[in-house]
Amino acid sequence: MLQVIRYVISLLTLSLWAMAANAAAIDDYVFATPEQQSRFIQLTTELRCPQCQNQSIADSNATISEDLRREVYRLIGEGKEDQDIIRFMQERYGDFVLYKPRLNAQTLLLWFGPLLLLIMALVILVVIVKRHRKADQPCVLDKTEQAELDNILDGKQ
Amino acid sequence: MKKWTLVPLVLFLVLSLLFYRALFRENKNDLPSALLNRPLPEFQLPAVLNPERLITAKELTGEVFLLNVWGSWCVACRIEHPYLLELAEQGVTIYGVNYKDEQADARQWLKLQDDPYVLSVADVDGRLGIDLGVYGAPETFLVDQQGMIRYRHIGIVDKRVWEEDLKPRYQALQKESG
């Protein structure tokens, strides 16, 4: 019992510590309005850290993410629109920096690939089902075939 | 067998090839620079060895050169440094961007390790780095005579990188400008 309590306590401490570490990534920026703050949070989770590759700049502790968060903060403070800030990042770090890639010739497959695969899977499914139906249908003979069968059954050849 | 039954197989092979290439391509962690064929970003920064002198982007243009992003804190830069000295000796023009560094450390580095750069600018807060799309050091840009960025190499420049990637492009740019 004591051991279980100890275990739970250490888990709790660990999760608290993890929360603290997570909060450390969100620098102590002071915003003029709550709306600015929510834009900051939104933008930093939509922008991808160029160095760590699979974290947003909000999640990442890399120095480059720190710098980019500072830039987002600065740009918001300068009254820039969200799309201006995203364009700012994109002009420097390319499409990679966007978690929501734009639709262009290069990202066409990314956007519509899954849909394409789904459609193909559906087509294949329909074809297979249709074939099965055909196989299940009772065998219907035409007139000459029926006559032939009758003959055989009658033993007349 | 009808023709269309081959479609899934062909599709599978095409996808496999695509994934194979994405998985095993060289330098898969390198991001292509968003600044290719765009002018060097504007800046006005002090020179590392002469902080009173402010350097602008315009001062760097006029010839084909390498722009090397470095820092005294950067271990890979330490490994790269001797080869940059060799290149400078061969007559390659190299400018430095001293990225997010303590200026005293940077000056000491250039004095102790020798200086391959025509000059280095001090990008203490990393603003120029952001304008260049830099996300680490070392990174090396190849800039043409008009001040346009034409190539970017991420990571150490060594003999192999120079011979295979940078030198052919460097020479082509020199020829282009006559």
UniProtKB/TrEMBL annotation, chain A:
<keyword id="KW-0408">Iron</keyword>
<dbReference type="InterPro" id="IPR038297">
    <property type="entry name" value="CcmH/CycL/NrfF/Ccl2_sf"/>
</dbReference>
<feature type="domain" description="CcmH/CycL/Ccl2/NrfF N-terminal">
    <location>
        <begin position="12"/>
        <end position="153"/>
    </location>
</feature>
<dbReference type="InterPro" id="IPR051263">
    <property type="entry name" value="C-type_cytochrome_biogenesis"/>
</dbReference>
<keyword id="KW-0812">Transmembrane</keyword>
<keyword id="KW-0349">Heme</keyword>
<keyword id="KW-0201">Cytochrome c-type biogenesis</keyword>
<comment type="similarity">
    <text>Belongs to the CcmH/CycL/Ccl2/NrfF family.</text>
</comment>
<keyword id="KW-0732">Signal</keyword>
<comment type="function">
    <text>Possible subunit of a heme lyase.</text>
</comment>
<keyword id="KW-0472">Membrane</keyword>
<protein>
    <recommendedName>
        <fullName>Cytochrome c-type biogenesis protein</fullName>
    </recommendedName>
</protein>
<feature type="transmembrane region" description="Helical">
    <location>
        <begin position="108"/>
        <end position="129"/>
    </location>
</feature>
<dbReference type="InterPro" id="IPR005616">
    <property type="entry name" value="CcmH/CycL/Ccl2/NrfF_N"/>
</dbReference>
<dbReference type="Pfam" id="PF03918">
    <property type="entry name" value="CcmH"/>
</dbReference>
<keyword id="KW-1133">Transmembrane helix</keyword>
<feature type="signal peptide">
    <location>
        <begin position="1"/>
        <end position="20"/>
    </location>
</feature>
<keyword id="KW-0479">Metal-binding</keyword>
Automatic annotation (TrEMBL), chain B:
<dbReference type="InterPro" id="IPR017937">
    <property type="entry name" value="Thioredoxin_CS"/>
</dbReference>
<dbReference type="InterPro" id="IPR050553">
    <property type="entry name" value="Thioredoxin_ResA/DsbE_sf"/>
</dbReference>
<dbReference type="InterPro" id="IPR013740">
    <property type="entry name" value="Redoxin"/>
</dbReference>
<dbReference type="Pfam" id="PF08534">
    <property type="entry name" value="Redoxin"/>
</dbReference>
<comment type="similarity">
    <text>Belongs to the thioredoxin family. DsbE subfamily.</text>
</comment>
<protein>
    <submittedName>
        <fullName>DsbE family thiol:disulfide interchange protein</fullName>
    </submittedName>
</protein>
<dbReference type="InterPro" id="IPR036249">
    <property type="entry name" value="Thioredoxin-like_sf"/>
</dbReference>
<keyword id="KW-0201">Cytochrome c-type biogenesis</keyword>
<dbReference type="InterPro" id="IPR004799">
    <property type="entry name" value="Periplasmic_diS_OxRdtase_DsbE"/>
</dbReference>
<keyword id="KW-1015">Disulfide bond</keyword>
<feature type="domain" description="Thioredoxin">
    <location>
        <begin position="34"/>
        <end position="175"/>
    </location>
</feature>
<dbReference type="InterPro" id="IPR013766">
    <property type="entry name" value="Thioredoxin_domain"/>
</dbReference>
<keyword id="KW-0676">Redox-active center</keyword>
